[in-house]
C-alpha cells in the first residue's frame, strides 16, 4: 500500500520540469520561452514561433530563412502515404486519418538516432512540413478529388488554405490562420503533450510520439471541444434560446463545451485574441450567424459560472474563426494538431535530452489472494 496522496487527473502534481512555456492561470498569462502570447500573436509568425519553442530562442534572419526553406522543401508526402489514405473510409474522422498517417511516416523514416542533432532537425522539419499536407490530402481524397500539391511560393499558413480549397487564399485570411497556429502551438503539460512526453520517454521514434499525441488531442475534453462548440451553437439556434439552453445544461450537470480549464481561472488569453481575429474576419467577409449566440453564451456562462472560475477557453472562439476561413467543422481539431506539433516536438526534444522513462505508481484497490476457480465450477449470473 502506497502512502502517496492520489490526485485524480494528477491535478496540481508537477510531472516534469520545462522551460518551454508558462501559464499563470489566475492572471491569464501565457508565455512561450518567456515571451507573452500577445506579443507573438502580433509580431511573430507560426514558423518563427515553432523555431523559438523547439530551439529555445528566436532565430536570426538567416536561421529563419533556412528553416522555412527546409520546410517548404519537405512539404510533399510520399505517394504511398497518399495511396494509403485513399483506402481510409470517407466517413472516418480526419483526426483518425491524421493519427494513422503520422504513424505511417515512421515506416518511411525509420532510422532512430535521438542523440544526433541532424536526425532531430530532420524529424522536426518533416513533421512540421508534412502534417498540414496530410490533413489537406485526406480532405481532398474524401471529397473524391486528388490531393493538391503544395505551392512552394506560399508561406506555411497560406499554403495549407490553398491545399484545402485549391485557390490562393485572401491575405487577411492567411494572416489570421497563421496567428491561430501561433496561438495553438504550445500550452505546457496539457493532456496531448503529456501523452507525447510519456511516449517520448520510451525513446521511440518521433512519428510515434506525434501519433500518440494526435490520438489524445482528439477527445472532446481536449482539442475536440472546438468541433463540439459549433454543434452547441447550432443546437442553441438563436440568442433568445441561450438562457434556456444553459439552464438545461446546468440542471443535467452537463459540460458546456469551450468553457472551463484545469489551469485558467479567468478567460483564456488565447480566447480573447481569437475573438478579435473573428471580428476582423467578419468585418471583411461578413458576420457569422453564430457569433451573436456565442457572445450571448459567453456572457451567460460567465454570469452563472464565473465565480467558480469557469470562463471561455481556447476552443470557444477558434471554430468561429475557422468557419469563416471555410474550414469544415471536423477539420478544426486536425488544424489544432497542425499547430500543436510544434509544442509536442519541443517537449519531445526536451524529454530525450534529459530522459527518464515515465513510470508512476498506482494505488491498488482490488483484492489479494483470490482463489482461481476452474471454468466448469463457475456459476452463470
Ligand atoms: C483544451 O490543458 C490544456 O492546456 C488544454 C488546452 C491546450 O491548449 O492544450 O488549453 C486545450 O483542452 C481546452 C479545454 C477544452 N475542453 C472543453 O472545453 C470541454 C469542456 N470543459 C471541461 O470539461 C473542463 O473544464 C476541462 C476538461 C477543460 C477541465 O477539467 P477539470 O480541470 O478536470 O475540471 P472538472 O471537469 O473536474 O470541473 C471542475 C468543476 C466541476 O464542477 P463540480 O463537480 O466541482 O461541481 O467545474 C465544472 C465541473 O462540473 N465545470 C464545468 C465546465 N468545466 C468545468 N461545468 C460546466 N461546463 C464546463 N465547461
UniProtKB/TrEMBL annotation:
Pfam families: Citrate_synt. One of its GO terms (molecular function) is citrate synthase activity. It comes from the Bacteria. It catalyses: oxaloacetate + acetyl-CoA + H2O = citrate + CoA + H(+). The active site is at residues 261, 315. Gene3D superfamilies: Citrate Synthase, domain 1, Cytochrome P450-Terp, domain 2. Signal peptide: none annotated. GO terms for cellular component: cytosol. InterPro entries: 2-MeCitrate/Citrate_synth_II (IPR011278), Citrate_synth-like_lrg_a-sub (IPR016142), Citrate_synth-like_sm_a-sub (IPR016143), Citrate_synthase (IPR002020), Citrate_synthase_AS (IPR019810), Citrate_synthase_bac-typ (IPR024176), Citrate_synthase_sf (IPR036969). Pathway: Carbohydrate metabolism; tricarboxylic acid cycle. Belongs to the citrate synthase family. This is Citrate synthase. It comes from uncultured Synechococcales cyanobacterium. The lineage of its organism: Bacteria, Bacillati, Cyanobacteriota, Cyanophyceae, Synechococcales.
Amino acid at each position: 500500500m502506497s502512502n502517496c496522496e492520489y490526485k485524480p487527473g494528477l491535478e496540481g502534481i508537477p510531472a516534469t520540469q520545462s522551460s518551454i512555456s508558462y501559464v499563470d492561470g489566475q492572471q491569464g498569462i501565457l508565455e512561450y520561452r518567456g515571451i507573452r502570447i500577445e506579443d507573438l500573436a502580433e509580431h511573430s509568425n507560426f514558423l518563427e514561433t515553432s523555431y523559438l519553442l523547439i530551439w529555445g530562442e528566436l532565430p536570426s534572419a538567416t536561421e529563419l530563412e533556412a528553416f522555412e526553406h527546409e520546410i517548404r522543401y519537405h512539404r510533399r508526402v510520399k505517394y504511398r502515404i497518399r495511396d494509403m489514405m485513399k483506402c481510409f473510409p470517407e466517413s472516418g474522422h480526419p483526426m483518425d486519418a491524421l493519427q494513422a498517417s503520422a504513424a505511417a511516416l515512421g515506416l518511411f523514416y525509420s532510422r532512430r538516432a535521438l542523440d544526433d542533432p541532424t536526425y532531430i532537425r530532420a524529424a522536426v522539419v518533416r513533421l512540421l512540413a508534412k502534417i498540414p499536407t496530410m490533413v489537406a490530402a485526406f480532405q481532398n481524397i474524401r471529397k473524391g478529388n486528388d490531393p493538391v500539391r503544395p505551392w512552394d511560393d506560399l508561406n506555411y499558413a497560406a499554403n495549407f488554405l490553398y491545399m484545402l480549397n485549391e485557390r490562393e487564399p485572401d491575405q487577411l485570411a492567411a494572416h489570421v490562420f497563421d496567428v491561430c497556429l501561433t496561438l495553438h502551438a504550445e500550452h505546457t503539460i496539457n493532456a496531448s503533450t503529456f501523452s507525447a512526453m510519456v511516449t517520448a520517454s520510451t525513446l521511440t521514434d518521433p512519428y510515434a510520439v506525434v501519433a500518440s499525441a494526435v490520438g489524445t488531442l482528439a477527445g472532446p475534453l481536449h482539442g475536440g471541444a472546438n468541433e463540439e462548440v459549433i454543434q452547441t451553437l447550432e443546437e442553441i439556434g438563436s440568442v433568445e434560446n441561450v438562457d434556456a439552453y444553459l439552464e438545461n445544461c446546468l440542471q443535467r450537470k452537463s459540460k458546456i463545451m469551450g468553457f472551463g480549464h484545469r489551469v485558467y481561472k479567468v478567460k483564456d488569453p488565447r480566447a480573447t485574441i481569437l475573438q478579435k481575429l473573428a471580428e476582423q474576419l467578419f468585418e471583411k467577409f461578413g458576420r457569422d450567424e453564430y457569433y451573436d449566440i456565442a457572445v450571448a453564451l459567453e456572457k451567460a456562462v460567465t454570469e452563472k459560472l464565473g465565480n467558480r472560475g469557469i470562463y471561455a477557453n481556447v476552443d470557444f472562439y477558434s471554430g468561429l474563426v475557422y468557419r469563416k476561413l471555410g474550414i469544415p467543422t471536423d477539420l478544426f481539431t486536425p488544424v489544432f494538431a497542425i499547430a500543436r506539433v510544434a509544442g509536442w516536438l519541443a517537449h519531445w526534444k526536451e524529454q530525450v535530452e534529459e530522459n527518464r522513462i515515465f513510470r508512476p505508481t498506482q494505488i491498488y484497490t482490488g483484492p489479494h489472494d483470490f482463489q482461481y476457480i476452474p471454468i466448469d465450477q463457475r456459476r452463470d449470473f
